[in-house]
Design brief:
Helix 2 links the parallel strand 3 and strand 4. The chain has six helices and nine strands. Strands 5-4-3-6-7-9-8 form a seven-stranded mixed beta sheet, with helices on both faces. A two-stranded antiparallel ribbon has the order 1-2. The longest helix has 14 residues. By secondary structure, it is of the alpha/beta class. 33% of the residues lie in helices and 23% in strands. It has a single domain, classed as Rossmann fold (3-Layer(aba) Sandwich). This is SAM-dependent methyltransferase. It comes from Acetobacterium bakii.
Length: 207
């Protein structure tokens, strides 16, 4: 495993308005950590981009669990997976991300066994923008994610402070990250000269 990222080979990074997308950057970290056969979680499946990447990285005998509170989102994810022939690799779960620990425990997933957990916060881009993640539910989900994370695993969190409630959620997540103790290490990546840009948090479990 290479961590931090190894950019010795050119990495195709998608851009939006000439800015590197935080979800693409998160994906590069994810690909540097996951191996075929790993257990991974998409805590906020949304349109399914992260779920698709996780399914590709874990191979035919890995386990991917994708959560979303919106049925419409899970239908999009299912369609995307089917188009790529990967639907058999993913378990779609119609629950909020704050219920991670309880739901996965019922599915036999033990603490300290999940290699990567992905959070892409905010709202479903082409869905109901009134249905958004919040600081309280997200912090509960992140606390649960810490208990699930395997040694050398990572949590990625894409934050969007530009929408109503997004700044409060982002600040809550960053403040929470500052309280983390060993074996966890938190990193924050952001664009410095843009107003309220999306930012990325990476949490590593070192051992």
């Amino acid at each position: 495993m290479t961590f931090p990222l190894n950019f010795s080979n050119p990495v195709p990074v998608a851009v939006e308005n000439n800015l590197i997308r935080v979800t693409t950057l998160a994906g590069e970290f994810i690909k540097s950590v996951i191996e075929p056969g790993d257990i991974v979680v998409d805590a906020t499946a949304g349109t399914g981009e992260d779920t698709l990447l996780l399914a590709q990285c874990t191979g035919g005998y890995g386990s991917v669990y994708a959560f979303d509170i919106q049925k419409a989102a899970l239908e999009q994810v299912k369609e995307k997976l089917e188009k790529n022939g990967l639907e058999s690799r993913v378990v779609l779960i119609h629950h909020s991300h704050e219920e991670l620990a309880e739901v996965l425990a019922l599915k036999g997933i033990n603490p300290s066994t999940v290699k990567a957990i992905v959070f892409n916060l905010g709202y479903l881009p082409n869905g109901d923008h009134h249905i958004v993640t919040s600081d309280k539910t997200t912090l509960r989900a992140l606390e649960a994610a810490l208990t699930l994370l395997a040694p050398r695993g990572i949590i990625t969190v894409a934050l969007y402070p530009g929408h109503p409630g997004g700044q409060q959620e982002a600040e809550a997540v960053l403040n929470w990250c500052e309280t983390l103790k060993k074996p966890f290490v938190a990193h924050h990546f952001r664009t410095l000269n843009r107003k309220s840009p999306p930012t990325l948090v990476i949490i590593q479990r070192m051992r």
